[in-house]
Amino acid sequence: MRVLVISDAHGNSVALKKILESEKYDSIWFLGDLTDYGPNPEEVLDILRDLRPEVWVSGNHDYANAFGVDCQCGEKTHELSVYTRERITQQRLSREDINFLRSLPTEKTMKIDGKEFIFVHACPRDPLYGYMFDFNPDCMISPLGIKIEADIIIYGHTHFPRNGMREGYRYFNPGSAGQPRDGDWRASYGIYDEGEFHLKRIEYDVEEVIKRIRALGLEKKHESRLISILREGRV
């Protein structure tokens, strides 16, 4: 089984479509954050719903839109997050869309190929808000102080791709499909095939996304910031 692993599409339907058109896959795992920053969260949501991912967990931005709470994202992007949530996401998602976001789980576990997988947006200890830029053993201890048992951790949230093995855990972060922040503007995603994980990048029409952002009539300081992140792949 060949699985397409995607996270953090952030309203960038152009990048998401490019990934989907360029890969052969049997199933999809989506690790959350289809909303905010990008111009087309409603289109990303429709695409994903049509595809019916085998795994689909909520991201902190999706949860914020669903329940009207703060996203608790990083300081560098918090103001931009709040602004785009109010000016883009909340204006483009329907009540039905919001109710759908409310139905998403914050974590999922599955037995695959004899291994115990845990899927979260952020990290096992804190599925919505914890940051795990690289393996962090504290993320594998529950708030009650109990070791979280799993063979493989699949997560997103940081917008930095990772594929590693530490302390008996395989961990895999496909990076961000819609808004990479690791210095490479190309859409980032992953493949799970025959028990192996692979990180991949692909160019897409970033200028089309920028054109759509400019058409929204956003405040110039926020518009410029969004464009800079898309072109440079960093905050």
Give an overview of the whole structure:
By secondary structure, the chain is α/β, with parallel strands linked by helices. The protein has a single domain (2-232), classed as Metallo-dependent phosphatases (Purple Acid Phosphatase, chain A, domain 2, 4-Layer Sandwich). The protein has seven helices and ten strands. β9 (187-193) and β10 form a beta hairpin. α3 (60-67) crosses α5 (95-102) and α6 (206-214) runs antiparallel to α7 (220-232). The longest helix is centred in the middle third of the chain and has 18 residues, at 75-92. The N and C termini lie far apart (35 Å).
Query: Mean pLDDT score, rounded?
Result: 97
- The separation of the N and C termini measures 35 Å
DSSP strand tally = 10
CATH topology: Purple Acid Phosphatase, chain A, domain 2
CATH class: Alpha Beta
Helix-strand pattern? EHEHEHHHEEEEEEEHH
Helix content: 25-40%
CATH superfamily: Metallo-dependent phosphatases
Whole-angstrom Rg:
17 Å
CATH architecture: 4-Layer Sandwich
Oligomer: single chain
What share of the residues does DSSP label as strand, in percent?
Answer: 15-25%
Q: List the total number of helices.
A: 7
